[in-house]
Amino acid sequence: MQTINRLDELRKARAALGGGKLALVPTMGALHQGHMALVREARRHAQHVAVSIFVNPRQFGANEDLDAYPRQLAADQALLEAEGVDLLWAPLPAEMYPEGYATNISVTGVSEGLCGAARPGHFDGVATVVCKLFNQVLPDVALFGEKDWQQLAVIRRMARDLDLSRPAVGDILGLPTVREADGLAMSSRNAYLSPTEREQAAALPRAMKEAISTMGRGTPVSAALTDLVSTLVAGGFSSVDYAEVRDADSLQPLTELGAGAARLLVAARIGSTRLIDNMAV
Ligand SMILES: Nc1ncnc2c1ncn2[C@@H]1O[C@H](COP(=O)(O)OP(=O)(O)OP(=O)(O)O)[C@@H](O)[C@H]1O
Ligand SMILES: CC(C)(CO)[C@@H](O)C(=O)[O-]
Ligand code: BAL
Fold first, then answer.
1. Which residues bind beta-alanine (predicted)?
2. How does residue 163 score in pLDDT terms, banded at 50, 70 and 90?
3. Sign of CA dihedral 217, 219, 222, 227
4. For all residues of the chain together, what is the average pLDDT?
5. If we measure between CA atoms, which residue out of 54, 30, 39 comes closest to residue 134?
6. Is residue 189 marked as binding?
7. What φ, ψ does residue 34 adopt, rounded to 5°?
8. Sorting pLDDT into bands at 50, 70 and 90, what band is 169?
9. What number does the ligand 3 atom closest to the CA of 125 have?
């Protein structure tokens, strides 16, 4: 595996791959089995696999965890090497955003509310860096996790609206969330949790499943969401940023379940750690 941190070298390495499709798995590093599932799936869609690791400053708010975000390049390299990844693109911030950088991509609609409201500017940062990653790596296929459901919707909208051809919107694949044995969605930020908080965190998927089954038994959406928030707070969560049911594709808010696919999306904090999750309703 080649680890590359300069764009000119990336372009040469990309050209040297020759024929065959290239799949890209964009990440912020501190890799876990959720990321590795994306890497393994990537191999099923392409002869060559590239992974990017870039903790993107533009998607972090001023008071967020940019400095604390786990960085463990050597361990990540070993995991990717063992999976036979061809290219690791790990640019420094100055390579991604050189002096004078002045362009922003802002996706409206699907980026509004949920994490878009809780983290102003976050999805501009995500859309901008993902567009740059696509242009830098020129992948035929790109893979993302459904754990970041709204992010996936934003990226697909951006690819459709900007007529991206590499990857085309149909080549942006979403994979189901990989979970720990107790149901907690794997996330690099789980490393922030103390042992007690880690135990409490499992209440999130448990309470979400319970809310989904009560809605299935006819409890109104608003009542099920109120119960869900109370359960989380009683279970040790310090606050709930949002708990909403939305149309799974358009992300329009839903106050009652209809014929179309719906999604329950939640963001909640334990201490200062913010966890997100989503499930089909
Ligand atoms: N548990 C998971 N299952 C499947 N995909 C995942 C999982 N966690 C993250 N991903 C996906 O991996 C890619 C890189 O995500 P990222 O590096 O931000 O990891 P993360 O664990 O989500 O970290 P964070 O703590 O920042 O949320 C994204 O497409 C994300 O959706
Ligand atoms: C897609 C991404 C790599 C862009 O920085 C990031 O938001 C993430 O890891 O989900
Ligand atoms: N996993 C999404 C990246 C972020 O939280 O900034």
1. 59
2. very high
3. negative
4. 97
5. 54
6. yes
7. -65, -45
8. very high
9. 6
Nearest ligand 3 atom to alpha carbon 122: 6
> Is residue 253 classed as helix, strand or coil in its secondary structure?
strand
Ligand 2 contact, 126 CB (< 6 A) = yes
Question: Was 59 annotated as part of a binding site?
Answer: yes
The type of residue at 88 is L
Confidence (pLDDT) at 28: 98
Determine the average pLDDT of the residues in 209-219: 97
Instruction: Report in angstroms the alpha-carbon separations of 195 from 4, 199, 200, 201.
Output: 36, 6, 9, 10
Tell whether ligand 1 has an atom less than 6 A from the beta carbon of residue 177.
Answer: yes
Report the DSSP beta bridge partners of residue 145: 175
CA-angle at 133, arms to 280 and 21, nearest 5°: 80
Q: Quick check: CB of 145 below 6 Å from ligand 1?
A: yes
Q: Is the CB of 124 under 6 A from ligand 2?
A: no
pLDDT at 208 over 90: yes
pLDDT of residue 129: 98
Provide the pLDDT confidence category of residue 259 given band limits of 50, 70 and 90: confident
Share of the chain above pLDDT 70, in %: 100
Q: Distance from the CA of 152 to the center of ligand 2, in angstroms?
A: 10
Q: pLDDT value at position 18? A: 86
Q: In a mutational test of the pocket of ligand 2, which residue from 24, 27, 122, 188 has the highest number of ligand atoms less than 8 Å from its CB? A: 27
Q: How confident is the model at residue 196 (pLDDT cuts 50, 70, 90)?
A: very high
> According to DSSP H, which parts of the chain are helical?
7-16, 33-45, 73-82, 93-96, 114-118, 122-137, 149-161, 195-201, 203-216, 221-234
